[in-house]
Write a structure and sequence with these properties.
Elements: H1 2-29, E1 34-36, E2 44-46, E3 72-77, H2 80-83, H3 93-105, E4 110-114, H4 122-132, E5 140-144, E6 155-157, H5 168-175, H6 182-189, E7 204-206, E8 209-210, E9 213-214, H7 230-248, E10 252-256, H8 263-272, E11 275-278, H9 280-285, E12 298-300, E13 305-308, H10 310-325
Parallel strand pairs: 3-4, 3-5, 5-10, 10-11
Antiparallel strand pairs: 1-2, 6-7, 8-9, 12-13
Length: about 325
């Protein structure tokens, strides 16, 4: 009897070890820079340790969680414009602002952390502010707006409570047969809402793209995500940001105006009680007087990709540095 029990335990432990190794290998093979978030409202996050990502899962250098005495810490939140698609990590406007403030106030006096998450919308950014920033004890938060924030994010979670959402090994196995049996595998087992290609990691799915942006029509969105959409979704998220700012006593700068079209959202943000900074005037100064065109500040105008290039980030960074500077307490020297 004891021998049977011992053999049974041995089989269970050995099986668990083998499955664990298979799962570990599947995760190690994954070359994708995003993971499903443990928060249904944040939806997805950057993969920690991925190239250009730090161990905390942000596109930035390593920072100690506990800030040093006398350090003024800023957390920047936004989408791919904040993340810095198309430019080096240290060329993003948040890093530009950090360097400008270091030159003025001294190295390390102001830290500016980049929590940019490509494809995220205002609702996700409100959740990121509420759920991920408190541990970093910021003195100020900068949140950047983009016109496609009216829409769904680039990716959404699959339907909840499925084993596939957690297992890379099972996801890898199912991916190999999904093309042959799409309804059975993608719809019923992997719990996809859309018949898009299989996502590179478990628990997430692609959102269909309409006119270069994720869909924004409520009737085409899963019911669990319709709260994000349109003007109502954005205004609700702005109010959530404002309430969290007031609750924690952490001021928020809301950054608008890269393309000069954000008067509506700027007014909503002001009505919610947020400080609004519009970058359009200094951007427009670059070309309105005849010195080039707006596309000169784009990372890839030949592809109609209007993400800021290095010069564009430098202009925004200068504006952001000035806005942050107004919040940094003046150090008083005692003689």
């Amino acid at each position: 009897m004891r021998r049977r029990v011992f053999v049974g335990l041995y089989v269970v432990v050995a099986t668990a070890l083998v499955l664990g190794v298979v799962e570990w290998l599947s995760r190690a093979r994954s070359g994708f820079g995003y993971v499903r978030s443990s928060s249904p409202e944040i939806v997805y996050e950057l993969r920690a340790g991925y190239p250009d990502h730090n161990s905390s899962g942000y596109r930035d250098r390593e920072y100690a969680l506990e800030k040093k005495p006398g350090t003024f810490r800023v957390v920047g939140i936004g989408d791919s414009y904040t993340y810095g698609d198309g430019v080096a990590r240290d060329a993003t406007f948040l890093k530009v602002a950090e360097r400008l403030l270091a030159a003025e106030l001294g190295e390390g006096r102001v830290e500016v952390l980049n929590f940019g998450l490509p494809g995220s919308n205002t609702a996700m950014q409100a959740a990121l502010f509420a759920e991920r920033t408190a541990a970093w004890d910021p003195d100020l938060v900068v949140i950047q707006w983009c016109r496609n924030d009216f829409n769904l994010p680039n990716f959404i979670q699959t339907a909840p409570d499925g084993i596939v959402e957690h297992s890379y090994a099972l996801h890898e196995l199912l991916s190999g047969i999904a093309d042959r049996f799409p309804i059975l595998v993608k719809k019923r087992v992997m719990a996809y809402d859309y018949d898009e290609e299989v996502f590179p990691v478990p628990g997430l799915q692609h959102v269909p793209i309409v006119e270069h942006n994720p869909i924004g029509r409520p009737e085409l969105a899963p019911a669990r995500y319709r709260y994000m959409l349109g003007g109502e979704g954005v205004q609700a998220a702005l109010l959530k940001i404002a309430r969290e700012s007031e609750r924690r006593g952490v001021p928020v700068i809301y950054l608008v105006g890269w393309a000069g079209q954000d008067g509506d959202v700027a007014e909503w943000a002001r009505s919610a009680g947020l400080e609004v900074v519009d970058v359009w005037s200094p951007v427009a100064e670059r070309f309105v007087s005849g010195y080039g065109v707006f596309e000169d500040l784009w990372v890839a105008p030949e592809r109609s990709d209007n993400h800021p290039n290095v010069e564009g980030h430098a202009i925004i960074g200068d504006v952001v540095a000035g806005a942050i500077r107004r919040h940094v307490p003046i150090r008083r020297h005692v003689h």
